[in-house]
Amino acid sequence: MHAFDALGDPVRRRILELLSDGEQTSGALTSAIRAEFGISQPAISQHLRVLRESGLASVRAEGTRRLYALEPAPLREADAWLERFRGFWGQRSDALGTELARGSRERRLGRRHDGGDAPDAAHDAATNAAINAAIDAAADATVALPSTQPTTDGPTRKNGQ
Description:
By secondary structure, the chain is mainly alpha-helical. It is built from seven helices and three strands, in the order ααβααββααα. The chain has helices spanning 3-7, 10-19, 26-37, 41-53, 72-83, 86-108, 118-141, and strands at residues 24-25, 57-62, 65-70. Strand 2 (57-62) and strand 3 form a beta hairpin. Helix 6 (86-108) runs antiparallel to helix 7 (118-141). The longest helix is centred in the C-terminal third of the chain and has 24 residues, at 118-141.
């Protein structure tokens, strides 16, 4: 199973977020996921199994406890694949950062005031337009990832049953 297959589920993404803080017991993971998503312990065990089989998580026994840890190699592979797409949003983000820095510098130097000076007011309007254009461009280039938040929808039913 490829990392993206495993990452497609919000429960598994949340488990990985929890594991990013360090090794966790299966009990701690189960408690956190049950509280957030309201799913059963067997369902959580299945998600943990998928993460193990995809190589995203490892497990080790310590007495009767099972300790899960994040395995970074599959995430690095996914990151390497995404690298070729970063150019689509990187330049627009850089432009937005430049405009935000310019506005911050102008405020710090005291150039912004109540708009009584026509050249400054025109410059403010031009800066605001440039910032808005950069924000719009960045929003158009953003890749939407599915949320890790639980949904309130019930299970999907087939054939209207």
